[in-house]
Amino acid sequence: MSFLRVAVSLWFLKELLFRWPVLEILYSSKSFLNIGPTPYLASFPVNIELLKENYMLVVYAALALLLLNILGIGRNITSFLLFLIFALLYNMNNRFTNAGDKMSVVLLFYLSFANTFSHFTLFKRKPLSPAIEKLYNLVSNLAAYSIIINLCLVYVVAGFAKLMNPMWQNGTAVYYFLNDERFSIFAAGGKHVKFPAIILYVINYGTVLLELTFPFLVLNKKSRNTALLLCLLMHLGIYAFLMIYGMSVIFVLQYVMFYSSEELIAWSKKIKALFAKRFRFAKK
Amino acid sequence: MQTKEPTVYNIAYKWVSYCLVLAFIYYWFFTLAIIFFYRPVQVITPRQTWLYATFLRQEWRLFEIPRVNNRKMIFIIRDKRQPAQADTIDLVQYSIAQKRKYAPFNNYEDALERLLSNVMNRLEVQVLEKKANLQKKFPGETQDFYLRQVSQLTEADTAQEVNLQNIIAFGKHILEKEKVNTTGKEYQLSLVYKIIPSQNSTAPLRNDEEIIFITAYRNF
Questions:
Q1: What is the mean pLDDT of each run of 10 residues along chain A (284 residues)?
Q2: What percent of chain B has pLDDT over 70?
Q3: Which end of chain B is more exposed for a tag (fewer CB within 10 A), N or C?
Q4: What is residue B59's DSSP assignment?
Q5: For residue A262, what are the contacts with CB-CB under 8 A and spacing of at least 6?
Q6: What is the interface pTM, i.e. ipTM, of the complex?
């Protein structure tokens, strides 16, 4: 969970910094585009015009909260404020956001209730009184379950939606995605993309099957690694061939939730040992 | 006294933890209801649905519908005095090319491309709705008739002109970026579908394009 807090915060930081030149177009009242906030935000008692005029203050506040969250300062309060500020930013203009952006805000919501401060913090956490600590653990566990349920649900609903679509049913959906100029790296400049039909069918039906069975496979210890590896391959495919970068990263980051802290620590020790062995010459 | 305090804590803990677990169960039932029965849930619990949509909105049906066509948004700029002198820029291709150029660190270009695509989607919905209405009202007319009528109606639709204005603003922004001189020039905008041939088609590749919306020439 600590890893997830830091990784998601770094991901947000990267997204924000790489979007920096476009922030004025997205949020400013001086933007050449006339794009209003979502109707939901309009129902809140916030002065949207004032927000748009001072959008950089919101962005700077988001940056400050991201840094605090990475260092674990302010703990759950910082995490919750971070969730609120990104929800606000994405509601000020949601016309450019993708599934990854939306999912990452929901992830911030769950993480803001979790105890993600056992590692990677600037200051060690003082234990609370036993009764409150017990409650905190309960809330933290429910937050962790929520992340897992959310991820499983996203895959299953996506699988069901595909199952209902005629193009996924007849096995041609992947072909059309590969010919979509907006996403496919193969369709650059209006090229017509053709792959052997058998490959497209395998990817098409394999994706639907994997998404539908994801919760069962991943909750079974025997099939967990295989399921996550297949999903990783699917996201690598989306990342490499469909130019959807942020979304793939945010999905894959959540896979750590299916492993215990002990397993992750053991892995990190193994990796450290491997590096130490390989780069022994660097030590004197 | 020493034994009473932990007991009070225990009871409080028990009840608070029951409430938390109940809230958790309710939240997930509500989420499931939102996913599968959005409209009825919105009618029954409008405030909760609104809160959920504001803060916890997600895309559940990922990659559900592939597009069967690519799109072009063609910006034609011509000299008012010599109309034969014209420049053409496809806003979609331009944005996609920029996005490709800087991939995978293309958040700026990707955001712009998504913005353009989103405003185009809105215009497209508006155009297709009007076309469907016209086809009901005047069945059996030529495609050219529908195109002209739809384009005129869309341009005259003041309630939704913001979509068209945004695309025009986008086009002007690109022209400015590319340092295209616009003095003494006028422009026209057209939305074109490029049909993707079917997967099993063995026929030689044709350039199947269909204009679905075209504006009259306008002054800069």
A1: 90 90 86 80 79 90 94 91 91 84 93 88 79 87 94 95 93 92 86 88 94 93 93 94 90 91 84 80 56
A2: 95
A3: N
A4: -
A5: none
A6: 0.86
Instruction: Return the residue in B92, B199, B202 with the most chain A beta carbons within 10 A, the one to mutate for interface testing.
Output: B199
Contacts within 8 Å (CB) and 24+ apart, A161-167: A161/B60, A161/B61, A161/B62, A161/B64, A162/A207, A162/A208, A162/A211, A162/B63, A162/B64, A163/A208, A163/A212, A165/B64, A165/B65, A167/B65, A167/B66
How far is it, in rounded angstroms, from Cα B75 to Cα B167? 10
Q: Cα torsion at B15, A134, A105, A256 (round to 10°)? A: -130
The 8-class DSSP code of residue B79 comes to E
Structure tokens at A200: 């497209």
Question: What are the pLDDT digits (tens) for B66-123?
Answer: 998 999 999 999 988 888 888 899 999 999 999 999 888 888 889 899 999 999 999 9
Question: In Å, how far is B194's CA from the nearest CA of chain A?
Answer: 9
Its pTM stands at 0.88
> In whole angstroms, what is the distance from residue A72 CA to residue A78 CA?
8
